[in-house]
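Good morning C.,

I know you're traveling, so I'll keep this short. The sequence:
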Amino acid sequence: MNDYYVKSPPISFEKIYQQSSCFTPIVFILSPGADPFSDVQALVETVGLGMNKFRFLALGQGMGEQAKQYIEGGSMRGHWVML
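The tokens, ready to paste straight into the viewer:
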């Protein structure tokens, strides 16, 4: 093991949520293969939002319009949107 390797602390999604507001998006910069979906889904349930107010969309070619609709709808209805 390299002496210069520093392991990142585990991510606390609840702590991130507590420090956020409805006016600021939370942005995750992910390494290849990382998938925080299940952690965010668990947070949705923990804070009592409910899956009916959570929208998820895997972005790819041609998904821009649907992403725009999710973001606009989420901002008007108070939904969480994960792209």
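Safe travels,
E.
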